[in-house]
Amino acid sequence: MLVNLNDVLYQALARKCAIPAFNVFGYEDAKAVIDAAAEMGSPVILATNKVAIHHMPIEVIGAMLVEMAKKAAVPVVVHLDHGQNYETAAKAIAAGYSSVMYDGSALPFEENVRNTAEVVKLGHAFGVSVEGEIGSVGYSDSATGNDGTLTDPYEAKVFAEKTKVDALAVAVGTTHRMETQSASIDYHLMEEIQKVVPVPLVMHGSTGLPDNDLQEIAKMNFCKVNIGTAIRMRFGNSLRKAIHDKPEVFDRLELFQSPIKEVKQEAVNKIRLLHANHLT
Ligand code: G3H
Ligand code: ZN
């Protein structure tokens, strides 16, 4: 069934577990993630980022994911990841997304507050949950020029109160697009943030987190844990192997079989580490 963040994050908060938000780019990985969640009896978040909606128009991927969510046996959130502006958030809402992120983390504080609050007003008018970001989770890929800035707990509190976001992404040491689980997070900062921020917290760049950190953050107020690169690597590496192992096969539906299986396994593993299977 299609749900929004508020339908699942408070349950996760109460039960000391976290819901994974997996970045998906099409039918195959979305199906693998939903199948993993259904097998584990866990809610799940399907997230589409800028690259995904550049590849496939937001109305098209939105309609597909919403339909898949409605048919799923477990709660599924269809979420816009790192929305760049009000227009994109509005398009996502029109396409049926149940949740959007507005990422104004690169802007000055007051501008980020103003823009995020406008998206919150729009989202809430349509029953759509809204995530904001304060501080900035950087990128391991130096070409983006964004090394990130750790979140200040007081700013996070004021930001959450002023914008009325449903969930807040904070920067505590992870970096987007890491290919190894070698990020180091600041637990003291995380404690300070969760003491004063009244809404569920979001961890971005979670591919970089070691398994034991995933287990630990799930017990804290980090109720939404974003995982993208781990899934992309599993899909791409498995597809490469399938093409190499079966040079005579040109039918992509056949070549997609092992990537779908491997993405499902990866999702099952992360769901287990976050204890999300305890939720339904
Ligand atoms: O918003 C998406 C995530 O933060 C994914 O990050 O690709 O480093 O796991 P990741
Ligand atoms: Zn992110």
Question: What's this, in brief?
Answer:
With about 280 residues, this protein is of the alpha/beta class.
Computed over alpha carbons, the radius of gyration is 18 Å
What are the bound molecules? glyceraldehyde-3-phosphate, zinc ion
CATH topology: TIM Barrel
Note the overall shape: globular
Supply the CATH architecture: Alpha-Beta Barrel
Count of folded domains: 1
Percent helix: 40-55%
H/E series: EHEHEHHEHEHEHEHEHEHHH
Low-confidence stretches: none
Strand content: 15-25%
Pfam family, one: F_bP_aldolase
Cofactor: Zn(2+)
Keywords: Metal-binding, Zinc
Active site: 81 (proton donor)
Folded structure, characterized:
There is one protein chain. This protein is of the alpha/beta class. The chain has a single domain, classed as TIM Barrel (Alpha-Beta Barrel). It is 50% helix and 15% strand. It is built from 12 helices and 9 strands. The protein has an 8-stranded parallel β-barrel, surrounded by 9 helices. Helix 5 packs parallel to helix 6. The longest helix is centred in the middle third of the chain and has 17 residues. The structure holds glyceraldehyde-3-phosphate and zinc ion (ZN).
Which key terms come to mind for this protein?
280 residues; alpha/beta; TIM Barrel; 8-stranded parallel barrel; 12 helices; 50% helix; globular; binds glyceraldehyde-3-phosphate; binds zinc ion; Aldolase_TIM; zinc; Class_II_FBP_aldolase
